[in-house]
Amino acid sequence: MSFHSVQKFGMLGILVATLSLGWVTQSADASAEKTVIVKIEAMQFRPKEISISFGQEIEWINNDLVPHTATSAGNFDSKTIEPGKSWKFKPKKRGLFKYVCSFHPAMSGSIEVDGRVNIKTDTNNRISETETLTQKY
Ligand SMILES: [Cu+2]
Predict the structure, then answer these.
(1) Which of 18, 56, 80, 117 has the largest count of CB atoms under 10 Å?
(2) pTM value?
(3) What residues does 100 pair with on adjacent strands?
C-alpha cells in the first residue's frame, strides 16, 4: 500500500467512525424519548407486561367505557383515568413494578425497567459487578 492510499484509508476510517458514532448517539436519544403505550381495553392492560429502558415514559390510554387506574402501591398511582383519557409516567428507579387497577384488582400488569440486571461501576466508571434485582414491587 502506498503512503497515499494509507492516508485515504485513514481518512475514510475517521469518517466511518464519526458517522457511526453519530448514528449510535442519535438512536440512543430516540429510544430514551420514545413513549411506550399501554392500552386499557376490554378490562385489560395491553400489553400486560412491558419492558422499558430507564428514562422512558409510559402512557396508559383508556379505550374502555369505564374509568380505570394504573396503581403500584408505594411507587405510582395514576388516580382515575376517565374513558378516552390517558396518563403518563416515567419510572424513577430500575426494577420490576407490578401494578393493578384499583377499581378492578383483577386487572394487573407489570413494568420492567432496564431488565433485572443492575450494573455497578467502580470509581473509574468500569463495570465492577452485575447483580440480579430480587426486589419486587
Ligand atoms: Cu379498571
Answers:
(1) 56
(2) 0.64
(3) 71, 108
